[in-house]
């Protein structure tokens, strides 16, 4: 097995710990030879972990990608609105690309990325990691084997978790669509992708409703302060208290082990307190600059007449996805670590237990393993989560957001795509 080489653009949580860490676990398969990361502390930590010399460490992606290629692969894990330019240059420089989702907050840029991958003959895989997770892989196999006949309808719930939405989508970097992406894209493009993959049919029509119902200044309790730690009169009884999240671990102990890294490079209590005073993660959830929805529903119709409903809600205790797939011969229900298959003819019930693994239940490692195999044997084929497949589900998300902004008006996907493609053609003239 030939060792492949890669450069990492963006050494944040996903890039550093989810994808590039594969090179540490399987050094005979992958070696990271350069990194571009503006945060000096993260850049230094990543370079030390992977043995990258100082001359191969960059503050920005431009000097790394503008030179002659130094590796086989570019892992691009920057923030949502920082994907397009490095992806396009990496493809032009003939890197194969593994791109963190979403592709881009711009529909036109998504189409341009897809076309650039084809024009340059490079393998571009988008990190829709759920396609590689054991739970969803087994569900897909059952469907493909005809276990439930033809799919008639799917119901998919994404329970974000009250502590996760407060951390990432109220206080964190995905809290404002003007600087990141709308919620349906930033958090739920995974779900649009799963529905498209399981249905295996073009989505033809979308409508959507949702709003920022709770996390805004109109709901700020009397006596609350801009920062939880600054003498807030209701902090002790607020379920979204930042000190409770990050110091006591009362909400989820996971915070103290992982999420505190988002605002402090040193997980000491003094550094956490400092972060709660100085960073957005210490702000009151009712007095942040967030504008993304905290709940949303999407209705979808597919080419063969099948339908799907999707619900995203931030007001749940645990983050989890729950799915029910209803077919002409049976149904499938799945959540967490279990799948239940029911047969209408025999009433037989099959239960499949899925062992829990770290990293999206093993999907982060699985997508890397698959991707490296596909790069080694690349002859123009598309991957399981290719740019082309991702554009389809991204368009579903973009259309859903357009519908929501138009008070639930139905959006025809073909017309929606054609309008964007036409705009792209006019820009290119």
UniProtKB/TrEMBL annotation:
SUPFAM superfamilies: Glyceraldehyde-3-phosphate dehydrogenase-like, C-terminal domain (SSF55347), NAD(P)-binding Rossmann-fold domains (SSF51735). Pfam families: GFO_IDH_MocA, GFO_IDH_MocA_C. Transmembrane segments: none annotated. It comes from the Bacteria. Residues 140-366 form the Gfo/Idh/MocA-like oxidoreductase C-terminal domain. Residues 6-127 form the Gfo/Idh/MocA-like oxidoreductase N-terminal domain. InterPro entries: Gfo/Idh/MocA-like_OxRdtase_C, Gfo/Idh/MocA-like_OxRdtase_N, Gfo/Idh/MocA_Oxidoreductases, NAD(P)-bd_dom_sf. One of its GO terms (molecular function) is nucleotide binding. Belongs to the Gfo/Idh/MocA family. This is Oxidoreductase. It comes from Cohnella abietis.
